[in-house]
Amino acid sequence: MGGNIIVTGVTSGIGLGLSTALLEKDCTILGIGRDISKLQRQINLESNKQFFFESFDLSDLGGIEELINNFISAHGKIDGFVHCAGIEETIPLSMYKVDKVRRIYEINVFAAIELLRIVSKKKNSNDGASFIFLSSVMGALGQSGKVGYCSTKAAILGMVKASAIELAKRKIRVNAVLPGIVTTPLTEKLFSELSEENISRIKDMHPLGIGEVGDITPVITFLLSNQSRWITGQSLTVDGGYSIQ
Ligand SMILES: NC(=O)c1ccc[n+]([C@@H]2O[C@H](COP(=O)([O-])OP(=O)(O)OC[C@H]3O[C@@H](n4cnc5c(N)ncnc54)[C@H](OP(=O)(O)O)[C@@H]3O)[C@@H](O)[C@H]2O)c1
Fold this sequence. Notes:
By secondary structure, this protein is an alpha/beta fold. The protein has a single domain, classed as NAD(P)-binding Rossmann-like Domain (Rossmann fold). It has helices spanning about 15-25, 35-40, 65-75, 100-120, 145-165, 185-190, 195-205, 215-225; strands at about 5-10, 30-35, 50-55, 80-85, 125-135, 175-180, 235-240. The mean pLDDT is about 95. Bound molecules: NADP nicotinamide-adenine-dinucleotide phosphate.
């Protein structure tokens, strides 16, 4: 496949698994995350000359453009971008504080739109590029205590459809992937807050069982590739059957 790909959330879970898969496909990667030590346990940064890691807090929206510009000056225009960085929190309405919800929006939505704005500039991306955003089945379905998280993931779906229309004239495609529960540090944190009974109830809600990172990354690499060149503005659910019940 090759090409210059930006991946956020590369230090953990889906973003980390995706980066490993993209390195095997000869891509040059700008990987964004914060905690390099988590990344170093999985990817040898010394020997992987096509992987460029930037430790950066995406809530610093004003600093994103310089980061992207520096990579493009050194390596050329972008062919693909995947926003895997995200935070998940349970905040029942009784504990709702606008600042807590704003923090989820900053990473899941505002950073996503800022990255999209910058990467979609003609000077920054090649025609035919592919942009993918991690939403969630929670963006299409509801769950108790998840007003903040569900609404950020639903916002992604609207952003994807609107930008897909706007960018189609350059054959740039924009799609969302909606995973069900996949085993990552994010879900380990979620499960640590739940009773055993609730955990097995959630597992039982996935007819094919809960997923692995490797169940999601091939879908993303397909969407990045030219094989999906006629797919845009879509919400692709990958959830072991969670949403069909
Ligand atoms: N796992 C699931 O079951 C599941 C289901 C549906 C949707 N999703 C979505 O899929 C995406 C990836 O999930 P995951 O399970 O792989 O999560 P994860 O293992 O918790 O990884 C999240 C990543 O986001 C990065 N991140 C968080 N806050 C950041 C910030 N302020 N600045 C820069 N990077 C930041 C983290 O970097 P650092 O740790 O280095 O800060 C980490 O690399 C998320 O959008 C999530 O909502 C996941």
